[in-house]
Design brief:
- The protein has helices at about 1-15, 45-60, 80, 135-150, 180-185, 210-249; strands spanning about 35-40, 65-70, 90-95, 105-115, 115-125.
- By secondary structure, the protein is of the alpha/beta class.
- The chain folds into two domains: about 20-195, Collagenase (Catalytic Domain); about 205-249.
- Helix 2 (about 45-60) crosses helix 4.
- Bound molecules: zinc ion.
């Protein structure tokens, strides 16, 4: 029996060994709809071609409230984003300042300061080893989706099947693992009242039309209750009278 309990405990803790992490324990982006500014200048590939499908990966999480979209903009630069110049505005752009021998293809960051969220994704456009132009369509989509995960405050997961795992070997498609979904939902939980009810469970808000039948029932029940209580009282008094007669005998 003791070994069985030990086995159950081991199973429980080993199940929790692989788990998402957060970059910051502070609140994440506070919007339900987040518009990402994409600066394509200096990029060897058109990021706008890939960004939609990378965002769809996260937008597919039905248990999360956050909806992501992107617009192309030259106003927001990655250099200013790095110096935290854009409160509550996420920015993605190419950066040629990566070392030519650096194998990093992209990096994403989230931070929170003085009541505002900051985040950006830098894509390697150095022309060196990690340049985004060296990679194919699926890898670019994967890199964008992974770095966007960081920009949304997710850290690396120890689950090798997770998009937020620190590394990848072979890629056939870009999808989320259950661990990614759990992490994203933890950060951006969807309120139950926002969803569709399939089974009719959940809270039912009382409306004036719902309270009217209850009031009508109460008005009807009040005299009946009074009559009933008077009848009980009457019976009690009669009983008392009989008892006192017996006592007087
Ligand atoms: Zn990463």
């Amino acid at each position: 029996m003791r070994f069985f309990i030990l086995f159950l405990l081991m199973m429980h803790f080993s199940g929790n060994l692989t788990a998402f992490t957060l970059l910051s324990s502070d609140p994440a982006w506070n919007e339900d709809e987040l518009v990402i500014q994409v600066n394509n200048s200096g990029c060897p590939v058109d990021l706008m071609i890939y960004i939609g499908s990378a965002l769809d990966v996260w937008n597919s999480v039905s248990t999360a409230k956050l909806k992501l979209s992107a617009v192309e903009s030259s106003t927001y630069t990655i250099a200013n984003a790095q110096s935290f110049s854009y409160p509550n505005v996420p920015v993605i752009g190419c950066d040629s300042s990566f070392s030519s021998t650096d194998t990093t293809v992209g990096s994403g960051l989230y931070d929170y300061s003085s009541g505002a969220s900051y985040g950006y994704v830098r894509i390697n456009s150095s022309g060196g080893t990690g340049d985004i132009g060296n990679y194919g369509d699926i890898t670019i989509k994967y890199i964008l989706a992974h770095e966007i995960g960081h920009m949304l405050n997710l850290g690396h997961s120890s689950d090798p099947s997770a998009l937020m795992y620190y590394s990848f070997s072979t890629l056939e498609d870009v999808s989320l693992s259950l661990d990614d979904i759990r992490g994203y939902t933890y950060l951006y939980p969807k309120s139950e009242l926002d969803g569709d009810y399939f089974l009719g469970c959940g809270l039912v808000k009382a409306s004036p039309s719902n309270t009217m039948p209850i009031l009508f029932l109460l008005i009807l029940l009040l005299p009946l209750t009074l009559i009933y209580s008077l009848r009980i009282k009457d019976k009690f008094l009669k009983k008392q009278k009989i008892l006192s007669k017996f006592q007087s005998l």
